[in-house]
Structure formats: structure tokens, C-alpha cells
Write a structure and sequence with these properties.
single chain; alpha/beta; Metallo-beta-lactamase, Chain A; 31% helix; binds zinc ion
Length: 233
């Protein structure tokens, strides 16, 4: 779905179920942000084809969880493009492994409990991407121009980043979710950092905050969720 088309930027949200990925096009360059799980590789290619995108210049990962990094290797090989992740996530991507973060509510804790006991390690393992490189603000600007920037937004994981487009669109990975009105993610390695990240992201006063799980939401919705968070957590 096309979610932004202004000032030379075009942002598309892919039609994937486990993780919404975003395609940002600028100046004839296309960057895919996140790659979902392996089972959705075809769905991503389909989304790219639907919008007549036949080349990718780069893949940026918001963090190193399996449902974001699952097709980084496959797609970077298919489209012959580079893969970037914040330096703290580089080892995970190069080794194809991540850890399960702490559950912060009943749902998150239940998933952690079950996945730690699962005989299939598909929650923590994915195809290694040895050629991955460090994602910096310069990298973001080199592909997406000076009106795009990288924000280090830790809390969900230590390697979490957000990509800000045109000061209007925040592609935020799992810094927040959007399930039945709930914005607080079920998992966080460090809740104190996450709350600080929320404060910083709200300061941007963006038009649209784009999580990987659930639909994009506006500034006032995010601000209300933050006020509830400060009050009750
Ligand atoms: Zn995650």
C-alpha cells in the first residue's frame, strides 16, 4: 500500500503478514526496510513487482530479529544489493542468529516461554548474511537523500533503529506496534530505554509512525499511548 508520495519520496508498505516491510524510493533508488520471515519471501517480491520495482539498491534492517532479517540474505542475493544494520546488530546478521527479547506483558512472556522450549529454532535462526555492513546516518543519506535520517532508537533491542523520511514518516521497526489500539510492544530488552525512545520519537511530531506489526498511526494517537504509558507503567 502506498502510504506517502511527496517531495520526491515514495513509501510503500508491503503486503506481508508477519512483518510489514517498507519500500522507500527516492531519486530512482529503492531501499527495502526489513524483510519479514523466510516463508514470506515471495510475498515481498510480489509487493515489489506490484509497484513495478525491479531493482533494489539496498536493504536496511531496523534490528536483527528473525521476522525482520529472514530474507535479508535471499533478497540481497536476488537483487544483488547491499544489506545494512546498526553496528550493534552486525554480528547477529553475519551469524544468522538472534536472541529472544524479554516479554513485558502476559502475551510476550507466554511467547518467550513457548519459544524457548520449541524444538524448532525458527525464532532465533535465519540465513546468515555475511556481507552485511554497518548502517549509519551517512548510509541512509547516501541512498535516500539529505531529508532522510537514521535515529538510534534502542529499547526493544540494543540494535533497534528508525528511519525518518522527510521529517514526516517514521519507519520504527518494533519500537511500537499497533494491535487493537495497543502501541506498546510485547517484547523489550530494556524498557527504560524503550520509554526514552518513545519520548524522542514523539518529539519528531511526524505525520505517520510506521510499525512492523500493525497499521501506521498518527502523532496524536502515539502521544496518547505515551501519556498512558507514563501514567501506568
Ligand atoms: Zn523485534
Amino acid at each position: 500500500m502506498l502510504i506517502y508520495d511527496k517531495n520526491e519520496y515514495r513509501v510503500i508498505r508491503t503486503n506481508t503478514l508477519r512483518c510489514s516491510c517498507y519500500i522507500v524510493s527516492y531519486n530512482e533508488k529503492n531501499v527495502l526496510i526489513d524483510t519479514s520471515v523466510k516463508a514470506e519471501s515471495k510475498a515481498i517480491v510480489k509487493s515489489l513487482k506490484k509497484y513495478k520495482i525491479d531493482k533494489l539498491e539496498a536493504i536496511f534492517l531496523t534490528h536483527s530479529h528473525t521476522d525482520h532479517a529472514g530474507n535479508a540474505r535471499y533478497l540481497s542475493d536476488s537483487y544483488n544489493c547491499s544489506v545494512f544494520i546498526y553496528e550493534k546488530g552486525l554480528n547477529n546478521i553475519k551469524n544468522g542468529i538472534c536472541s529472544i527479547p524479554n516479554g513485558v506483558n502476559f502475551l510476550g512472556k507466554a511467547i518467550c516461554f513457548l519459544s524457548n522450549r520449541s524444538p524448532f529454532n525458527n525464532f532465533t535462526e535465519f540465513d546468515a548474511c555475511e556481507k552485511a555492513e554497518a548502517l549509519t546516518d551517512d548510509t541512509v543519506k547516501s541512498y535516500l537523500g539529505t531529508d532522510a535520517k537514521l535515529a538510534y532508537t534502542p529499547g526493544h533491542t540494543q540494535d533497534s533503529v528508525s528511519i525518518i523520511i522527510d521529517s514526516k514518516i517514521v519507519i520504527m521497526g518494533d519500537c511500537a506496534v499497533n494491535f487493537f489500539g495497543n502501541k506498546y510492544p510485547p517484547f523489550a530488552d530494556d524498557e527504560k530505554l524503550l520509554k526514552n525512545t518513545w519520548g524522542e520519537l514523539i518529539k519528531i511530531n511526524a505525520e505517520l509512525y510506521c510499525p512492523s506489526h500493525g497499521k501506521p498511526f498518527g502523532y496524536s494517537e502515539f502521544k496518547k499511548a505515551n501519556e498512558r504509558l507514563i501514567k501506568y507503567k
